[in-house]
Model the fold of this input.
Amino acid sequence: MTSIDKTSMQRIVIVGAGPAGVRAAETLVAAGVVPVVIDEAPRAGGQIYRQPPADAGFARSKRTLYGMEAGKADAVHSTMARMLPKLDYRPDTLVWGCGAGQLDTFHAGRQRTVPYSHLLIATGATDRILPFPGWTLPGVYTLGAAQIALKAQGCSIGRRVVLAGTGPLLYLVAYQYAKAGAQVEAILDTNPFSHQFAATPRLLRQPSTFAKGLYYVGWLAARGVRIERGVTLVRATGDRAVQAMTYRDGDRELTIPCDAIGFGYGLRSETQLADLAGCRFRFDPLNRAWLPERDTAGRTSVPGVYLAGDGAGIAGADAAELAGRRAALAMLEDLGHRAANAQAHVVKLDRQLANIAKFRIGLEQAFAPHLDCASHWPDDMTVCRCEEIDAGTLRRCIRGGEASEINRLKALTRVGMGRCQGRMCGAATAELLSAETGKPIAEVGRLRGQAPIKPVPLSIALMAELDEAPDHLAAIPEHARDE
Amino acid sequence: MNETLRFDVLVVGGGLVGSSAALMLAKRGLKVGLFERRYCGAQASGVNYGGVRRQGRPAEQLPLAVRARRIWDRLPELVGTDGEFVVSGHLRLARSVADLAALEAYAQMANPFGLDLQLLSGPTFRRRYPWLGAAALGGSLCPGDGHANPRVVSPAFARAARAAGADVREQTAVTNIVYAGERFVVEARHDSGAMIEAQADWLVNAAGAWGNTVAGYFGESVPMEPIYPNMWVTEPLPYFIDHNLGVYGGGIYARQVARGNVVIGGGRGSGDGEYAQPLTETTRMVMRAACALLPGLKDALLLRSWTGVEGSTPDDNPVIGFSRTTPRLLHAFGFSGGGFLLAPGVGQVLSDLVVDGTTTTTIDAFSIERFA
Amino acid sequence: MTTNPSAASADKPQFVRLTEAHRKQVGLTVDGVAITALTGDTVLSAILLHTRRVRDTEFSGEPRAGFCLMGACQDCWVQLEEGERIRACSTFVKEGMHVLTRPAGAVEA
Done:
């Protein structure tokens, strides 16, 4: 068995301390590597196993926080805790840029450049959002936000909560909310039950996950929580904050008074770092999104860069743990390290991941996003919430023949140019472009990651990690500058 | 599907120079074609800083700059949008007494061209600009200069060219050009795979950083290097920067747009001549300079950085004018980071050269002969 | 559509504390008004446990109250009195914090 040459210049870096990053770190540590593990959050666990703040007096048990996933959450947390002496762990650290073997990170107001020879990107996901009129009102949140408010802060997002959209998260959050004593006014699922029924054969590939899903729905129904299926979200209304949600069921429009809405249509991968790292992307029809290319092991088109977890395509927490291990094994193999049981391990992981992949197809079938939504958006509905760009502005630009591709549309209308860099409006903009041009969504282009991938203050440049000559400005002939 | 086309003039390159040339030529009644291998205005024309500036240019550029500046006032009528052009004035800052003296000398040279430069320093300057850092001792203000949005202006010229009758083809890359039988025969390929053959009496080489590729078909070449201007932008901020700002001696330039974002450039990113990325080192260096110049920015959030590919010549002047080797071939490229203001004027000059064979604007200093 | 005075809607709290209310209290001010939060609250939670607005947009001035709670949407940036910008959903409250939810006005040297 060959071991890692610890004196070499290898710098092995993992971005993300969710289930994928933690299991990757565990696999590397077991092989004698000391990886750098960088995470934006103060504590490990990612979003799904997000922990409340430490040393703040939070007292709920893991059982209360994570329900049936408590065992898995605890395992990820304790694994990380045990590994701490063997890691270079950097929490509360934003990786904002990447290129040419270096990461730009930001921690406690300072820039820190982290070189890498091998990089695992395990940056997870956010909610996938498709807007409806009124979605920018105070009181309207994502399903993920609703879950975080409860898990990490012990709060409900409102007194009378409507949960809407589609996906397994919809029912999980409703269950968690109702169990915690929040008032869930209604669950509005845009998918009819028939979709879920038809997906059953595939969903049975992960029987315990499927059973949990059925359990949540059954529990909610038994408690009389209102569940409406196959509905369309029409609008949220309210004066300066949400006061009601209107939806359509067949040809009836119904309105539910509420003071909070949590909505989402599954998840979307955070791929900006993979983009900056130079990975080749491909449109993935199942995720209905552009994703960095990866082989079954998690290798990308860039030697030394690997992907694992929801940051490379949505597959859930169990798959993330497996993919983290699998990518770490690939990295070790590429480093010339041969562990005793690596091959058997790899075969098993690949089989488990393939099974989950089939399950995911079933999930997308059961909880398909509304494909025709864009044509129903009124012109005055905000699409880009950062820049306040409405659907009418986008349509005028497209119909005027000025843009048939997403980057041109962005340049001309400012959609996607705001602080969130298109995370919240990118999917919607692509759907709208596809609807207006008739082009398949895979052909309307993709928004590119740009550094910093999240905003950083200019003062980051004032406290340098390394000394810099204060007046060292690039010498450019004065009259030749692009002024 | 293949196509055969016939034009009076074919323009290669759909940046601001090519698009304005196509527009001006079409307006003068010529049958114009334009081939752009990606999207019009997406290269240097779309990623540059956006300064619409005469001040600071060398004497030989001023006649062209003055002519171009007049066109900027007519943008709405010419291309249907003002492109967010604001006559904010351009304030060129001095960091030392020597800088101030240099600005004085420049004003003496440039004012006869109508730039109306005003020099400020001392307590008047401090009172007028409380938001400038102490490192700025004074400056030279050109009240008639300003800035605009390059992402909007460049495509607008291409659209206007189309509306004026030019056949503007995007995603259409030129694969070969020969001059035969007194005309240019151009082969091009659309991204879809369709092949195009175009014949034209005149050819305009407005291929920007790739100008040498086109010049090469005619045995010409210019010592041009690709440069990658490093740019970044802040979140929207309460409005406080009155002018388009530059610094004598270089290194940083800043402007605040109507929506409040502050656009800042300086230094170089990196690239391979085709694609480019901003460089963190450069961005941070310029961020420090920005905080020194504009102390109020230090808490502002940086939203994104970008760069693009521009062609730069050894004397930082463009190549404009007739080919040395081939009749009715006009070059207009190599603007070395200073093309945004000039481009509409260049388009007019090129249309003069095609229609009249000559132009009243002095462009001798830009002849390709100087690199022979 | 509602018969309640619409002004009342925006002045009520958005979030509801369901549990974990026993934690140590933290005093801070928001736009000069003193409020009490609990250790481990984010600035966003602290604000939204009192009102339904965190910031106004730059362009239309419409109110926002955060959206994703996970640092992705960037819709909850506020400012400390000293000038530092903070993302409310990912910043924990500290005793004596002075938070501003409206811009400080014209920027000065």
About this structure: The longest strand of chain B covers residues 195-205. The radius of gyration of chain B is 21 Å.
